[in-house]
Design goal:
By secondary structure, the chain is of the alpha/beta class. It folds into 2 domains: 65 residues, Ubiquitin-like (UB roll) (Roll), CATH 3.10.20; 126 residues. 30% of the residues lie in helices and 32% in strands. The radius of gyration is 30 Å and the shape is elongated. The mean pLDDT is 86.
């Protein structure tokens, strides 16, 4: 009889403790989500470009748990030059948000119209009218002729290849698009690339020559991977 009573008491206690645990599991997340203690009061921003104040101001007063990488992905749609957004929480009320942009590739001057247009080309092929100070960009001028839709991709490929050669100042490379051909200039070297295609292969072919700094004269491509030169060494 007493044994049965003890077992019933133990069972009741276990049931009660289980109930308390369930209540805690339900109420604690609600407390952490909506408690004033976990409201964002400080926002630290790390970025390689200027961030609109309206973006950072929108985080204040929100639950720190609602500021996530996923919740910020909408800004990548609004600003296509943003490659990555990362968040880090410092409880109870501080978040750190890191914005990374795609690499800038080229500063492009389009001189075909009555009013020259200047844009910056990013690695993801996005063009922007907003300039971020950068001295390591290809300098591209478009004089005349139609531009193939793949031209921007060719510039990115050229940049990504030529940057692998040590000693080349990419900001010192000028490319001029004239009609169906493109010419390049670097220090004392004139480069006749021919058609603006296979620029990655052409960059690989000429990279060592430019990096050496020992050539002054004209280089003429005969195909995508070979050239003739009149270098004065």
């Amino acid at each position: 009889m007493i044994q049965n009573y003890i077992e019933m008491e133990q069972k009741s206690l276990k049931t009660f403790l289980s109930f308390i645990l369930i209540i805690i599991l339900i109420l604690f997340p609600s407390y952490t989500l909506f408690s004033d203690k976990f409201i964002v009061k400080n926002v630290n921003v790390i970025s390689d470009f200027d961030i609109e104040t309206s973006i950072t101001e929108s985080f204040y007063g929100k639950s720190i748990w609602f500021v996530t990488d996923k919740s910020l992905s909408k800004y990548q749609d609004k600003f296509p030059y943003i490659e990555k957004i990362e968040t880090e929480r410092f409880l109870p009320s501080t978040v750190q948000i890191t914005f990374r942009s795609y690499s800038q590739i080229a500063k492009i001057k389009d001189l075909r119209g009555s009013q020259p247009k200047e844009t910056v080309l990013y690695k993801n092929l996005f063009r922007s009218n907003d300039f971020i100070e950068n001295n390591d960009l290809l300098q591209v001028s478009i004089i005349n002729g139609p531009i193939d839709e793949a031209f921007d991709g060719e510039l990115v490929s050229f940049f990504m290849t030529i940057q692998n050669f040590e000693g080349i100042n990419i900001g010192g490379i000028s490319l001029i698009h004239i009609g169906n051909t493109i010419s390049g200039y670097y220090e004392d070297v004139e480069i006749l690339f021919g058609a603006p295609v296979d620029l990655s292969k052409k960059a690989a072919a000429i990279g060592e020559l430019l990096a050496s700094g020992e050539c002054s004269g004209t280089v003429t491509f005969v195909n995508s991977e070979s050239f003739i030169t009149e270098c004065n060494i």
